[in-house]
Write a structure and sequence with these properties.
Layout lengths: L2 H9 L11 H4 L22 E3 L1 H7 L4 E6 L9 H14 L4 E5 L3 H13 L2 E7 L5 H10 L2 E5 L3 H14 L3 E2 L5 H7 L1 H10 L5 E5 L4 H15 L8 E7 L4 H4 L21 H11 L2 E5 L1 H13 L6 H12 L9 E6 L7 H6 L13 H8 L2
Parallel strand pairs: 2-10, 3-4, 3-6, 4-5, 7-8, 7-10, 8-9
Antiparallel strand pairs: 1-2
The chain binds pyridoxal-5'-phosphate (PLP).
Length: 367
Amino acid sequence: MSILNKIKNKFSFNYRKKRWPGLINAYKQYLPVSSKTPIISLNEGNTPLILSKSISDLIGNDTKVYLKYDGLNPTGSFKDRGMTMAISKAKEEGREAVICASTGNTSAAAAAYASRGGLKSYVLIPDGYVAQGKLAQALMYGAEIISIQGNFDKALEIVRKLSSEYPINLVNSVNPYRIQGQKTAAFEIVDDLGIAPDWLCIPMGNAGNITAYWLGFKEYAKIKKNLKLPLMMGFQSEGSAPLVKNIIVQDPETIATAIRIGNPVNRDKAKIVKKESKGDFQSVTDEEIIVAYKMLAKEGIFCEPASAASVAGLIKNKNRIKKESTIVCVLTGNGLKDPDCAIKNNDAIFQKNIEPSLKNITKILGY
Ligand SMILES: *Cc1c(COP(=O)(O)O)cnc(C)c1O
């Protein structure tokens, strides 16, 4: 190596120091694992925190809006963070099977991690309300799928009973290990920003994730990794807003199927998060979700509709945001999960059945 190159190497910062080992190995000291825990991992976590220029500009006032793109986890949603923990612990306990109710992403993650760990997985899903990509995943990863003529809430009621009577671990977000794994997303944000954001905007279904983030921010604050705590802003769809309205919604309806939940299991925990963080729960319409969904995609970030609720909610609060705030919106799932939604809701120019001649195409391009 030339002297010049040696000097260059010495002063160039190596961003990719070593292979990311998955979130359990990375944050072991903060998680309920021991040397006896068999770690079932797909190297999940370490997802990018992307500065959004368009949303930052829209909010104005020198606000910085970052997107925690958790749709880049191995199965395409943040559920992997909880599932690596839940499946590792199930394996440690010697269980042979796990079960969950799911609007899609939990079943995809449960199926993938269970198969990787050599466990069987059973998933109950609401007939006709699971996005195509998620269904494809559960089928491919090897779950046994039971589609019920009922919604998520009904499915959850059944799997809760089953898991209490038989030796099958429930891996929905009532499973405390799910929350433990998911809190690492808050750690990553603080590690990246060097401080907690002023606001955290997040979609809420069963409200496990907002509970997990708050736990993560609080735990990191205790060991002085961040000196302040964010306001926790939880968003639901107007047709599925049990936490905003403080009711049980019998027939939840929304385009954002991942948060189509009428009776959130973590309701009480979510209320505490709102109170402790001085945050707020609000609803956004499906139309507002789609506006945000398209805006993000135009900046190169494709998330699923439920995830766009976090950005739609932020936009609604534009006038409440203090100057020079730092805000993180959590993008919980990948846009590829729900191709039907994208195909139905876009502003693309898509010309079909065109005769393939150079002259014809040139004309179409306007040259
Ligand atoms: C599960 C899920 C949510 C909701 O998370 P909760 O922990 O149930 O509040 C939001 N978005 C996506 C994409 C999900 O898969």
